[in-house]
Specification:
Blueprint (H helix, E strand, L loop, with lengths): L6 H15 L30 E2 L2 H36 L1 H12 L4 H9 L13 E5 L2 E9 L2 E6 L4 H14 L3 E6 L4 H19 L5 E4 L4 H9 L3 E7 L2 H9 L4 E4 L5 E4 L5 H12 L12 E5 H13 L3 E2 L2 H11 E4 L2 E4 L8 H7 L11 E4 L5 H4 L6 E7 L2 H12 L5 E5 L3 H11 L3 E4 L19 E2 L5 E2 L6 E9 L6
Parallel strand pairs: 1-6, 4-5, 4-7, 5-6, 7-8, 9-10, 9-16, 10-15, 11-14, 14-15, 16-17
Antiparallel strand pairs: 2-3, 3-20, 12-13, 18-19
Helix pairs in contact: 2-5, 2-6, 3-4, 3-6, 5-6, 9-10, 14-15
This protein binds nicotinamide-adenine-dinucleotide.
Nicotinamide-adenine-dinucleotide binds next to β4, α7 and α8.
Length: 485
């Protein structure tokens, strides 16, 4: 007996058999799923369409066609998309925030919702203004124009917030997008992106403006980087993916990892410094890349500062509890520590339990008095266990802060009224964000001046992203005419 099967029928049979067998896709060390021959893990349970693809080249083709349609719609179409995305994100904040919390099991539910409600602070089309020049030889116009299709990588720590923020910036700049979300937050990504696309198509007739790989893997990341229709990459994630993007050969805007140090000196109110650090460092259980990750406090005020932390419900740990927590949180090999993910983004009482301690459920954070080279100081722990290093003077604090920031050029915070020290820290740390006398969140327009973004381009230097970040600057010149003076 012989069978005559075309390729697609054969594929369908293989998919069916693998599905029946319940074969799970392989897991990569970074948490991304390696593509197995199995039916895509997520798209199998989520309806395709509305921008969700399993194949990168189909997604890129669809995004490119949508980009052409967006161009035809002009600034009005971009503004409409931004409006749709902002309104839908706010209207669905509770549902999507809860969904993401239940999918990722990290952070705090109220902050997952809060991060979506503040999307209105992300800048849109109003930022796209040309620069003009007029003189004896005529006029010059420089315009901020789209790249076309952008490949975007998003983190598990803020899946939908980063996606929504990226869409607002990137579409305001005139681009379409192909997302390769973190596998740990892909269901949330698919839910929001399909809803956005359905509404964009309904209101503007543009299909697949926001494409998403429903079964994201390291291979799909690689395929996006290699696709000729994708003009640039925007990476929001840790050191692994930043390194991979930089090596890809495609221009990449990289919002990379941070490990923001805080210095507390002897010129400030300790109660306020403690309150600010808890507010910023414990937001969403310290998942924010800008969040306070280690504190350097001057010896002369250290006791008072720690009493202020205690008064706000923080719990100090030490001795064997700290040793066992350190072993649980970090893997050590030849003196090098790497973060294990189990306790990332967990509540302080859950982290305490892992250290054999019982603390009130309401405790916002744990802290420990440690030396400047402790792994909790040197690694980006992303949990509300914040080490405190007591130093004899400001110079020692500065030296420790520079070492702990590790050259990520991300964020730093100081609590001081001494302008000279602020200036010294700004120069020595050389970070993208530097917050003085407030919680780290003030650096993103939340209680401080400025605008919001979930992608802070540290490694490649574009800074806190905004629509202009995702544009090509082009010049038009009229020689000896059209100048009207
Ligand atoms: P992560 O690096 O584990 O994952 C980010 C994304 O990259 C995911 O989509 C993941 O699947 C993919 N990825 C990881 N390694 C890869 C590789 N080698 N090749 C290709 N793709 C790869 O990060 P995370 O845990 O999801 O997020 C937390 C990290 O992101 C922290 O380091 C945090 O500081 C950083 N972050 C930075 C910003 C910023 O604006 N600078 C914002 C949010 C998060």
């Amino acid at each position: 007996m012989s069978f005559n099967l075309d390729e697609e029928s054969l594929r369908q049979i293989v998919r069916g058999v693998i599905k029946e067998m319940g074969v799970a896709p392989k897991q990569c060390a970074c948490g991304a799923q390696k593509s197995a021959p199995a039916a895509p893990s997520v798209v199998s349970s989520v309806r395709q369409g509305n921008g969700i693809f399993s194949d990168v080249s189909e997604a890129a083709n669809a995004a490119f066609a949508a980009y052409r349609q967006l161009c035809k719609g002009g600034m009005a179409a971009r503004a409409k998309v931004v409006d749709i995305v902002k309104k839908m994100t706010v209207a669905n904040a509770k549902e999507w925030g809860t969904f993401e919390y239940n999918e990722t099991h990290i952070g705090k539910l109220e902050h997952k919702i809060g991060k979506l409600e503040i999307i209105k602070l992300v800048p849109g089309v109003e930022w796209i203004r040309p620069d003009a020049w007029s003189g004896d030889h005529g006029i010059m116009l420089e315009e901020y124009t789209p790249y076309g299709v952008i490949g975007a990588i998003t983190p598990v720590t803020h899946s939908v917030p980063t996606i929504a923020g990226n869409i607002v910036n990137m579409v305001a700049a005139g681009n379409a997008i192909v997302f390769n979300p973190h596998p740990g937050g892909v269901k949330s990504a698919v839910k929001a992106i399909s809803a956005f696309n359905a509404e964009i198509e309904k209101q503007l007739g543009i299909r697949n403006l926001i494409c998403c790989i429903g079964n994201p893997t390291l291979e799909s990341f690689d395929a996006i980087c290699k696709n000729d229709l994708v003009s640039i990459m925007c990476i929001t994630g840790g050191p692994g993916v930043v390194k991979a993007a930089m090596k890809s050969g495609k221009k990449s805007i990289c919002a990379g990892p941070g490990n923001p140090p805080v210095i507390v000196d002897d010129t400030v109110d300790m109660d306020k410094a403690a309150a600010d650090i808890i507010e910023g460092g414990c937001f969403d259980n310290n998942l924010l890349c800008i969040g306070e990750k280690e504190i350097f406090v001057l010896e002369s005020v250290a006791d008072k500062f720690m009493r202020a932390l205690d008064a706000r419900g923080a719990v100090k740990i030490g001795g064997s509890a700290l040793d066992s927590l350190t072993k649980t949180v970090f893997a050590e090999k030849d003196g090098h520590f790497t973060l294990k993910r189990d306790l990332v983004g967990k509540d302080a009482d859950v982290i305490a339990r892992a250290a054999g301690l019982s603390v009130p459920k309401s405790a916002p954070m744990l802290y420990a008095d440690v030396d400047a080279k402790h792994p909790f100081v040197m690694e980006e722990q992303m949990m509300p266990m914040i080490p405190v290093v007591v130093v004899k003077d400001f110079e020692e604090a500065l030296e420790g802060a520079v070492r702990a920031e590790r050259g990520y050029k991300h964020s730093a915070i100081i609590h001081s009224l001494n302008v000279g020290r602020m200036t010294d820290m700004a120069r020595a740390l050389n970070t993208t964000l530097f917050v003085k006398n407030g919680p780290s969140t003030c650096g993103l327009g939340l209680g401080g001046e400025g605008y919001l973004s979930y992608s802070i381009a540290t490694a490649t230097g574009e800074g806190i992203s905004n629509p202009k970040t995702f544009t090509r600057r082009r010049r038009c010149v009229m020689v000896d005419n059209l100048n009207i003076f």
